[in-house]
Task: structure prediction
Amino acid sequence: MAAWKLTVRNGSTVQRKGFDDLDSALAEARRQTDEILAEGPVGGARAFREYEPSELVRARIEISGKGLIRPPTAGLDIQGDNSLVGFIGGVARKQVEATDESGIFDEIREALAK
Result:
């Protein structure tokens, strides 16, 4: 059984893949991020009010480890304007300070390698 699970939610599509090591999971997460960013930004949305592209989560890429109670989890959200927001934690999430792709992945690696 895989030690790490990568979940990619892009719009209504959800993909899950298992990996034996963290480096492979991070490499695939980075590849998926680059692929989604290459599609370009999306427009805003309207539902009760107007939502700017920066307010919309276009895709979520999440890596989680093993464990029943609080498995190590971290990932990033790709906003509608193609900005990135990294996070650490599952239910109780903490936003990472980095805003560029390399910095976010460095913080994700550090959090998951503990």
User: Anything to note?
Assistant: The two ends are 20 Å apart (CA to CA). Residues 7-112 form one domain. The mean pLDDT is 94.
